[in-house]
Design a protein that fits this description.
336 residues; 4 helices; eleven-stranded antiparallel β-sheet; mainly beta
């Protein structure tokens, strides 16, 4: 039986920091920090964040609260051309896409209504197709906005649970959504992430499945950002195993349960797993059911994020993963 010291927890949890709380954020590219402005003229307050774990997918943008009302002016975050305007009964409701010359696209969903120029484009297509829900791809150069122009009013249209603005920044070429806070569009964040539990998975020689032996471990906070096992005991392991963590982030007291940006796992200072919610792919977003412990979620509604990757899982949020994150200790020494 190998021994794994509880000190591993401190290293594992150390990666659970969001951008607003530290400067040494892990990224795979550089971002134009001052290029984009906020889409609203009120203090940014999030009801949902990028990479948040939803029931069927990863959340692909940031949800801006709109003071529990509709009708706030929505502004173009930078100069650019409208590339798409859409009206849906469900989904994003009324939405606008603007391509910017620096290679990014801004997306605005759940709008109450459009400005006159966008309304004319939508109405013309609705009359043409004789239907309400339309999706218009707009030729480049047709409609140009300057940074700060009012493009619409915030709303509650489509599959929206309350008034808010869903906002995205995408790579124009790939249409992959990117974490908007990496562009400097940050929310006030006064609270460190909360660790709610740890899970040890005894894998042995088998692939992970709903029958994999699980050992939930409770943790306790020893400071604002540091956690230890509740009983401060050594974790015994034998053969191949994996780890999972249940964690959320709140931006303020009583605020919404948002997702974390990064999770890093170290053993004796050596990186074993790095997860980043920097970029997502709509084509693989439903791989969330492989990323979290789905069977455990169905049983307890607790979302444990696994530090190892199942075979065939297509998501690309893992950026450092020797041996797919599966761990095995080769001596009887206590590891930290």
């Amino acid at each position: 039986m190998r021994k794994l010291l509880s000190g591993l927890l401190a290293s594992f949890f150390a990666g659970l920091m969001v951008q607003a709380q530290q400067n040494n954020i892990i990224t795979t590219r550089d971002y134009p920090i001052e290029y984009f402005r906020s889409p609203l003229n009120i203090t940014p307050d999030a009801s949902g964040t990028f990479g948040e774990l939803r029931s069927t997918h990863f959340h692909a943008g940031d949800d801006y609260r709109t003071q529990q009302r509709t009708g706030l002016p929505v502004y173009a975050v930078a100069e650019g051309y409208v590339s798409r305007v859409r009206v849906q009964i469900g989904g994003g409701g009324n939405s606008v896409y603007i391509d910017h010359p620096n290679g990014y696209t801004s997306v605005y969903l759940h709008l109450e209504n459009f400005n006159d120029a966008l309304t004319n484009i939508i109405r013309a297509e609705q009359y043409k197709q004789k239907r309400f829900d339309v999706d218009v791809m707009v030729d480049k150069g047709t409609l140009h906005f300057q940074k700060g122009d009012v493009i619409a009013r915030s709303g509650n249209t489509g599959a929206s649970g309350g008034p808010h603005l869903h906002f995205e920044l995408r790579d124009t070429k790939s249409q992959h959504p990117l974490n908007t806070q990496l562009f400097g569009l940050q929310f006030t964040d006064r609270f460190a992430p909360t660790i709610q539990g740890l899970m040890v998975y005894d894998l042995g020689e088998n692939r992970f499945n709903e029958h994999t032996p699980r050992r939930p471990l409770s943790v306790r906070a020893v400071s604002g950002t540091d956690y230890k096992l509740s009983n401060n005991a050594v974790i015994p392991v034998n053969g191949k195993f994996g780890l999972g963590i249940n964690a959320i982030d709140r931006h303020r007291a009583g605020g919404f349960q948002n997702g974390v940006y990064s999770i890093e796992l170290f053993i004796d200072g050596k990186p074993m797993s790095t997860v980043l919610f920097e970029e997502l792919d709509f084509n693989t977003s439903r791989g969330i059911h492989s990323y979290i412990d789905y069977a455990q979620w169905k049983r307890s509604k607790a979302k444990y994020q696994k530090s190892f990757k199942d075979p065939g899982n297509p998501i690309e949020i893992f950026h450092h993963l020797p041996n797919d994150g599966i761990l095995e200790l080769t001596d009887n020494q206590v590891q930290t």
